[in-house]
TrEMBL record:
Its cofactor is Zn(2+). This is Mannitol phosphate dehydrogenase-like protein cluster B. Keywords: Metal-binding, NAD, Oxidoreductase, Zinc. Residues 26-128 form the Alcohol dehydrogenase-like N-terminal domain.
Length: 132
């Protein structure tokens, strides 16, 4: 489910491209989604009624569960293909700034947010990040 403009409309795009394994960057994983929840935050992202703008076009969703089907080359992780994983609001953070080093990754000024600043879980395959 994708929307191109603030306020919608939301449409189902059955031809949206899926990233191939070789297109993943280091630190990225491709997840085949089995489930996705819908949160009130998804409505705010679509309506654009927060003080921060979401990316456009946007695939919403940040409450997903699935399994890893590909891992980007040169990714340092204990994750492996077939692992069951969840996708949450915090998709990624820099892990280098003072906030990240103190354990406050959710406040990282460079944070990537699923279904807000990066595409989320309202799709069959989602690119996410091995750190989170």
């Amino acid at each position: 489910c994708i929307f191109h403009n603030k306020g919608g409309p939301v449409k189902v795009d059955k031809n949206y491209p899926v990233k191939k394994a070789q297109e993943l960057k280091s630190g990225q994983v491709l997840i085949k989604l089995h489930y996705s929840g819908v949160c009130h935050t998804d409505l705010h992202a679509m309506l654009g009624d927060w003080p921060l703008p979401s990316k456009l076009p946007l695939i919403g969703g940040h409450e997903g569960a699935g399994e890893i089907v590909a891992i980007g080359d040169h990714t340092v992780t204990d994750l492996k293909i077939g692992d069951k994983v969840g996708v949450k609001w915090l998709a990624d953070s820099c892990m280098q700034c003072e906030l990240c080093r103190k354990g406050f990754e959710q406040n990282c000024p460079h944070a990537k947010l699923s279904g807000f600043s990066v595409d989320g879980t309202f799709q069959q395959y989602v690119v996410s990040y091995s750190n989170h």
